[in-house]
Design brief:
By secondary structure, this protein is of the alpha/beta class. The protein folds into two domains: 151 residues, Rossmann fold (3-Layer(aba) Sandwich), CATH 3.40.50; 125 residues, Rossmann fold (3-Layer(aba) Sandwich), CATH 3.40.50.1400. The chain has a four-stranded parallel β-sheet with strand order 2-1-3-4, with helices on both faces. Strands 6-5-7-8 form a four-stranded parallel β-sheet, sandwiched between helices. It starts with a strand and ends with a helix.
């Protein structure tokens, strides 16, 4: 086939023994603090991830479903694990593709995130035509899917996304504004007026990160009299560690400590409606 898709994701260690190598890859040669590695290993262990990654299985299910929906070959490329983005591009070229659509399983653009995927794919696909999707944060199918998950709730809706270093604001990076645009679009489509936004999953890098953090935000909501919260992680599309740990464990524990009820939406994962949304993005690029 002349056209192919490289579906990109952050990546996840396949088993507990892979965590040190995975974390070292994320750090990109920078020193790994033993206590940070130990904490990461403990989180995977407590979530029961010993011999197989549920996230990798979800990514493969999504890839296979998208391939069936499009009738085109779709290859998975991971930013920080295998198969690598370069491996996916190489497989597409070897299969005869002369045009590749690059699509990241993250809807919002930042120079500190999506640009890294693009750089890797451009280096690996320099011999073919490349159409790269920088962002799809207002894709109608995504907005509708998320709106369906929050519509009718009597809870205060908190939209969340992975935090990034605050210096991106000085760079004119569109990340935060795109997140707020998605949140507003979802709230409007669902008829939800009682909502707010916070970040999650800040990394211990020693520099300021975007806030407020979800744990601090829950405290603020509690102080305002909010008793019931529904979390909608608009910055994620799958059950990442940051969903299962940062929200399902840490945020739930904080809410319980405050006497609040906290729920979160089901993630898109490989939902057929989500796969159709991805397919619509690819088809538009190919046209």
């Amino acid at each position: 086939m002349p056209d192919a898709v490289v579906l990109m994701a952050y990546g996840s260690p396949e088993r507990l023994a892979d965590v040190p190598a995975y974390y070292a890859d994320i750090r990109g040669g920078r020193p790994v603090a033993p206590e940070n590695l130990e904490d990461l290993v403990d989180r995977y262990r407590r979530l029961g991830i010993e011999e197989s990654s549920p996230l990798n299985a979800i990514t493969e299910e999504t890839r296979a479903a998208l391939e069936r929906e499009l009738g085109l070959p779709v290859y998975t490329g991971m930013k920080h694990w295998t198969p690598r983005i370069a491996d996916a591009a190489g497989a597409a070229r070897e299969a005869g593709a002369d045009r590749i659509v690059g699509l990241v399983l993250a809807p919002h653009y930042s120079a500190l995130s999506i640009k890294g995927y693009r750089d890797q794919l451009e280096r690996a696909a320099d011999e073919v035509e490349l159409d790269f999707v920088d962002s799809w944060h207002l894709e109608p199918g995504l907005v509708d899917l998320l709106a369906d998950r929050v519509r009718g709730t009597d809870a205060h809706v908190v939209f969340t996304a992975h935090s990034l270093p605050a210096r991106i604001l000085d760079m004119g990076d569109p990340y935060k504004e795109q997140l707020l645009e998605t949140s507003r679009a979802v709230a409007d489509a669902a008829g939800v007026g009682d909502w707010s936004f916070s970040f999650q999953s800040e990394s211990p890098t020693g520099e300021p990160w975007l806030g407020p953090d979800i744990l601090d935000h829950l405290q603020a909501l509690h102080d305002q009299g909010v008793e019931h919260v529904l979390v909608c992680p608009v910055g994620f599309v799958s059950d990442h560690l940051e969903i299962r740990w940062d929200l399902d464990v840490e945020a739930r524990e904080k809410a319980a400590e405050l006497g609040m009820r906290l729920e979160r939406i089901d993630m898109p994962n490989a939902d057929p409606a989500f796969v159709r949304t991805l397919a619509a993005i690819v088809r538009r690029e190919l046209q």
